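Batch job 17 of 40 flagged for manual review because the log was empty.
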Amino acid sequence: MRKETFNVTGMTCSACAARVERAVKKMEGTADVSVNLLTNTMTLAYDEAAANPAAIIAAVEDAGYGASVKGAASAQAAPQAGGSSEAGADTAEKETRVMRSRLTVSILFLLPTMYIAMSHMLAGWGIPYPASFADVFWGAENALTFALAQFVLILPIMYVNRAYYVNGFRNLLHGAPNMDSLVGIGSMASALFGVFAMFRMSWGLGHGDLALAAEYSTNLYFESAGMIVTLITVGKYLEARAKGQTTGALKALMQLAPAEAIVLRDGREVTVPAASLALGDTVIVRPGGRIPVDGTVTEGATSVDESAMTGESMPIAKTTGDTVTSGTLNIEGTIRFTATRVGEDTTIRQLIRLVDDASGSKAPIARLADRVSAVFVPVVIALALLAGGIWLMTGASIEFAFSIVISILVISCPCALGLATPVAIMVGTGRGAAHGILIKSGEALETAGNIDIVLMDKTGTLTEGRPQLVSIRPIGITADELIALAAALEAGSEHPIAAAIRSYAERKALDVPAAADFQAVFGRGVRARVAGTDCAAGNAALLTELGIPLSDAIAAARAEMAERGETALAVVQAGRIAGLLGVRDAEKPTS
């Protein structure tokens, strides 16, 4: 079975997603079909002997929607890794802008519509209206003006939200009414009844029947026509924003993988697109560069910041034979490594794919919503027509029966199950992504509601991700002298521990002496001459190399620091330990 993801166009509600799912599930050789409305994607497994992408796309098109293999179009325009994900992120941003514009226009025209339509009721609640307003809009003689003003104001609302009518009535003609059908029918029927009422008012005013004009002026539904589509647009805008937050997390991940890499070809260093790297290539990464693919170090030594992958803020020493991971940051030395995993097999690409797949997965409650919404729309339409028919049979007027039909359609439009469930899932994953929390799947999100106890490591989760100097234990010198000496030693180092010490010295405004003959001892520390004296700063391995013994008191102090999660740094001056410094990744204030 081959797993494939398709882009699906034309879907607007859960009923659409359910219809696409049913159409593809009917095909021979397909399994595990999952359509995600909010990402406009369909993921399925299929037997290549019984089905193929062209047949699957044809089945979707027969159902009234469009489909294409995900990434196919973007692969032609942007062959580098991450092209399809970048296209998805750009699409989400565009959708957010479109929905924001639609919502702004809708609210801008809906507010005055509601102000006019509800003026009699609001005035009864004590809200003052100017006398000129009452002279223009109140009274049976002004009934047509009252209605015409609302009609003119809702036209822009209906125009910017015309997608509900186009998609809704198109799916209705296909025999597959969806949520847009319900919204479109309810809103359009409200507007058309209002137009009918305007003709009746015009007849009444023209024939001196003010009572008829007054009667129809109280039975207008123009504000409902505008309010329905505006409310649904609010939900669609929230969906688009949540989608944008999720794709923002994908963009941040994609930026970890460099677009270019330096590779050794025929004995020369050549810069090539990272996507073109092949297994066995010798890749060169200098200090400050990101590692483009996974591999094994063959030459050089360095420290690598793997916090993007592991959350661990302290750099990891890498030397010949060690593995390096794509997306991590080379800090100190230049290394050469052999590529062992490239393209979609690299760690960073697998992580991006995991986040992308999570946004397209469904929680069990979402599947229930799909099943309900698939029958909800036709049932509501049938009930509305049935109710209108019953009133007609009991002797009610056509106008009254029509108003009953409209009322049922309008009340049923904002389907909580069909709209709120996918919005809640998408907002949940989107808000998580915005705060650096990557949720594996919709099912995992639903399961999270039952969590009683949370266990987590500290690195990068509860901490700032930046080491800070937290302990100072001078021996034979003052604390300020110890810090100044350590800052002088670390002046030439790019290690995060060195940065923490220098930052502390700067905040204390200490006079840091100059250091000469600086030497970084890989994996151990640094050495230099300060004020003509040989000095050093590093770990226990450096002390052993220098032949400096650890006293019981110093060993106990180092053990105490380790228990608190601190990295102990010994500062050596003229062959003796001048003090200990403890560096630790501090907790976030929000932890």
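Reviewer: the log was empty due to a logging misconfiguration, but the result itself is present. Residues 73-84 have pLDDT under 50 and may be disordered. Unflagging and moving on to job 18.
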